[in-house]
Every structure is written in C-alpha cells, then in structure tokens.
Amino acid sequence: MDIALARHWVQAIAVAMDEHQDRLTQLDSAIGDADHGANMHRGFNAVLATQVSYRPDSVSQLLVKVGTTLISSVGGASGPLYGTAFRAAGKALPGTDPDPAELLAALRAGLDAVRELGAAAPGDKTMVDAFLPALDAFEEEVRAGGDLAAAAARAARAAEDGARATVPLQARKGRASYLGPRSIGHQDPGATSTALVFGALATAAAR
Amino acid sequence: MKKFLNTPESVLADALAGLAAAHPRLDVDVEARVVRRAGAGRAGKVALVSGGGSGHEPLHGGFVGTGMLDAACPGEIFTSPVPDQVLAAATAVDQGAGVVLIVKNYTGDVLNFRMAAELAADEGIEVRTVLVDDDVAVTDSTWTAGRRGTGATVFVEKIAGALAERGAGLDEVAAVGRRVNELSRSFAVALTACTTPAAGKPGFDLPEDEMEVGVGIHGEPGRRREKLGTAREIVAEALAAVLAEPVLTGTDQALVMVNGLGGTPLIELYVLFNEVSTQLAAQGVTIARSLVGNYVTSLDMAGASITVCRADEQLLALWDAPVDTPALRWGG
Predict the structure, then answer these.
(1) Alpha carbon distance B252, B240 (integer Å)
(2) Does residue B55 surpass a pLDDT of 70?
(3) Residue B200: HSE in the Cβ half-sphere, 13 Å Cα cutoff
(4) Strands B26-29 and B34-37
(5) Which fold has domain B9-183?
(6) DSSP bridge partners of B34
(7) What ipTM was reported for this prediction?
C-alpha cells in the first residue's frame, strides 16, 4: 500500500459513509440512539477536509492523522473507537510502503486497541464482530500468496458476513446493551460501518 | 415530524447562539462548543465541567452559573462531546485548584472524557472524574455497559457545585459528587418515542395504549413494553424499582425529582408528583426537597423520570445553597 492507495481508501470510506448514512441511522434507531450514520458521515467528511492540504511522508502518518481527526470530530463511542483503530494501525506501520503482511499486522494492532478501549469481545454485537473475521480472512489470503486486492476483497466479504451474523446476537456493550434481549434480531450499526471500511479498502485496492 | 429548525445540521449551533443571546451571564463559544460562566473565575475555586450529547436541555448548558457548573460541553444531538471540547472547557475554567469532570455513564461519554482527562493531565491540570450511573432500569453487570446516568446528574451538579463555591478542595468536591450519585436512583417511562432532527421520524413506534418502561434519555427503546397504566400504577412500578435498591433501604428523607422528558405537560408531572408524594409517605419517606419540571430531557419524548436521593443534612444544606443558572435559581 502506498500513500496514493491509502488516500483512495479514505476517500472510498467517505463515499460509503455518505451513501449508507441513512441505513446506519436506521440500524442505530432500532437498538441505539440514531446518530451513527450522521457521526460517521461527519467524521469522514472531516477526514477528507484535512487530507486536502495534508502531505504525509508515509501511509503510517496518514492513518495516524485519520485517527486523530476522527477523535476530534466524531464524539460518541465511534469517534474514540474508530480514531483509536486508525491511530494504532498507523503507529504499527513502518515508515515505508507496507506490504500486505505489514498492513495486516497494523490492522491487528488497530483491532487490539479497539478491543482494549471498548472492552469488547467477539460475540458482544459490536464492530469487533466484523473487524475480527475481516482480518482472519485477510490473513488467510495473504498466507495463500494473495495480493492486497485479493486479501482486501476477502476481508470485505468476511466483514459483511460478520456484520450480518450480529443479527441474532444480544448486545453486551454500548447503548444497545440496555435493551437486553430486545437487541436480538437487529444488525449492529458499528459492525455494519466496519464492513463499509473494509469494503472501501477492497474498492481502493482493486483500482 | 415537524420541528422548529433552519437545517437539521445547524440545530446545535443555532441553539447555542440563542442560549448566548438569552443569557448574557454565559460566555458561549459556538465554534468550540463550550458554554462557560462569563467573566474571570475566582482564583483557587475548584471548577466543575460537565457535558454530553445535546437534546437533554436544560442539561448541561442551563446549569452553568454560580453555585453549579463552571462550563459545559454540548456534543451533537445524543452524541458525546469530543475530547478537544472538554479540554478547551477545562483549560478555560481551571483556576489552579483543579477540575471535576461530571460524566454520565455512556460508552461514548466515558471514552471521550477519559481521553480529555489524559490530555488535561498532560497540560498540568488536576482532574477528578465523577461518573453518574443512577438508572435502575439497566442491570449493572458485565453483560451491559452498566447503569445509565440520568436524573441524578442534576443533583450531582447542584450539590458538588455548591461545595466548590464554598471553597472546598478538589478531592472533597469530587467525593460529595460521588456520594450523591451513590445515594440516588432513577427510573423512567415513555409514552412516545423522540425524533432526532437527523432522523426526522420517531425512533420507535409505540401504540396509543402502550408505554415503554425503563427508557433512557436517548430515544432508545426501554426494557419492555406494557399496557399504559394509570399515573398511580406507573408511579408504583417506578418507585418499586427505585426503592428496591439496597442503598435506598431505610431512607427516611429524600431529595426527589419528577422530571419531564420533553413532551409531557407540567400538569401531568404534578399528577405524577402527587402520586410520588403519597406513595413515599405511605412507605415512611419524607420528601425533604423536590424538583418538578423538565431538567433532563430527551428531545420531544413524552414521558417522565423519577429520581430519589437519600439525603442527609449536609446534602440538603448544599442543595439549599444559592444557585444562579438559566435553569435553576434560588437563594443568594
């Protein structure tokens, strides 16, 4: 991944958050407080705005900047969680263009940071339920010798599947947990937006 | 759903500008989204900063003023403020004696305020955090994000604010805030869902003859849905949930709030308060002080919450101390 590809990724995320804003809001209305679509939209718009004049020396720097911008502009739980994910991933990257294995290791660092901050485990009906399977699929493809485009495409599919698999789960973290058993039967908005982030990576990598 | 607004995106900025225009004793930074007392603060006074998503007005900006908060950080509607905002507020009001952050227990608020507290500490500001989690509708267990912070926030901000005004130290102010939270429990019932400007339609559908029991203040559905009861039955259910809490066992005098969620007329809140008063008296609890009105709202949700705080003489004296804010004003 080079800086140009990382920029395309960020742009594709912003496009996805724009296109899916209403869907995220609807999902969040069902089991949360109806602000996830607006928050992700605002956050990645802010990211786009800062990227216009930002000239990073590395993908590492770029991703750290994305994270910092999200923390400063989103609020809610998603700001710190996504912001920390990008910051931790960025910090784990080398100063050079990462190969797929290095990118995978960085994304794992991002996931670890999210799990630590949110104290969420797989199955809690959170973004972790899309993030973790995405990285497992990415890793399988990289081990099989696949390139970034192939790994990202598999990760995107696995994240989508993971988000859908949150439907029968009972939420144990975040605002949806207040509903107890009534959170069952709804797809988690955070897992859904995470699937959009991986979908955007696949879109960018396929260019 | 009809709303008074210019655009859904500009609601918060427009409302903050209105707050500034209506209350010259507030210094409102619409850009930075910080509401603070106008003028220089008193050197050596512990500062109180709170904040959270907007849509709960008058919480928190309406409680900025003498005897209560020094600053408030309003986030987007139902979205916690960002760390930069909280840091800007803490930096602006710190008088060298430290800052108490009053945080309602929601994942987003906790994460953003924690980040802000770390940033403030890096800048040499002493920070203590008081977490408010009084809502008994949520089981406080590893299976949830923990009890929510709701009505007791008003009690915490008033009483800790009064102690800070008297010149108490940082740890003392934080301790009284935590004690008020520990002694307070709340329960809410909704008759309609609320409508956020961004969504434009109610968060959930509630049939004409049903109510949501155990709702929070963010339009999320409650723990369960029931047939609408009489005011007497609803209050009995709410008080049973609140008084079942071990910390309230043996309460003989209480600070009680019947709070509207934004779409319930005051006359109905007094109907509820009458029931609360009668039913508490029957259980041997004297209402030492009370508050009836809209203090912690959920946009246009029709509904009410009941908060009971087991009060001793120290807490009552601090409650009675002068306060001068847009939403609470007495004494002085």
Answers:
(1) 16
(2) yes
(3) 5
(4) antiparallel
(5) Rossmann fold (3.40.50)
(6) B29
(7) 0.86
- Quickly name the fold that domain B184-310 has: Hypothetical Protein Tm841; Chain: A;domain 3 (3.30.1180)
Q: Could A78 and B137 be called an inter-chain contact, meaning their C-beta atoms sit closer than 8 Å?
A: no
Give the closest residue to B120 by CA, choosing from B93, B86, B95.
B86
Q: How far apart are CA B62 and CA B326, in angstroms?
A: 5
Q: What residues in chain A have per-residue pLDDT under 70?
A: none
- Tell which residue, B36, B50, B35, has the closest CA to residue B152: B50
B48 vs B39: CA distance, rounded Å = 16
Domain ranges of chain A: 3-205
Q: From the CA of B82, how many Å to the nearest CA of chain A?
A: 5
Indicate the average pLDDT of chain A: 95
Mutation target to probe the B interface, by most B beta carbons within 10 A, among A71, A178, A184, A188 is A178
**From the list B79, B107, B198, which residue is nearest A173 (CB)?**
B107
For A144, other C-beta atoms within 10 Å of its C-beta total: 10
Strand segments, DSSP code E, in A45-127 are none
Distance CA A171, CA B143 (A): 8
Closest CB to B78: pick one of A33, A72, A73. Answer: A33
Contact: B220, A74; criterion CB under 8 Å: no
Angle at B150 between CA B144 and CA B156, to 5 degrees: 120
CATH 1.20.120.1200 fits A3-205, yes or no: no
φ, ψ of residue B171 to 5 degrees: the values are -65, -35
pLDDT tens digits, B196-229: 888 888 888 899 999 999 998 987 778 889 999 9
Catalytic residue among B23, B33, B56, B158: B56
Give the pLDDT score at B200: 86
Task: Say yes or no: A76 contacts chain B, CB-CB below 8 A.
Answer: yes
E strand map for chain B? 26-29, 34-37, 47-54, 71-77, 99-104, 127-132, 184-190, 210-213, 224-227, 253-260, 286-293, 303-310, 323-324, 329-330
Chain B interface, Cβ < 8 Å to A:
53, 75-84, 106-108, 111-112, 115, 137-139, 142-145, 148, 196, 198-199, 203-204, 216, 218-221, 223-224
| pLDDT, tens only, B279-324 | 999 999 999 999 999 999 999 999 999 999 999 999 999 999 999 9
Is A172's CB within 8 Å of B219's CB?
no
Q: How far apart are CA B162 and CA B330, in angstroms?
A: 12
Query: What is the tens place of the pLDDT at every residue in B115-172?
Result: 999 999 999 999 999 999 999 988 766 667 789 999 999 999 999 999 999 999 999 9
Domain ranges of chain B: 9-183, 184-310
The bridge status of strand B127-132 relative to strand B184-190 is: unpaired
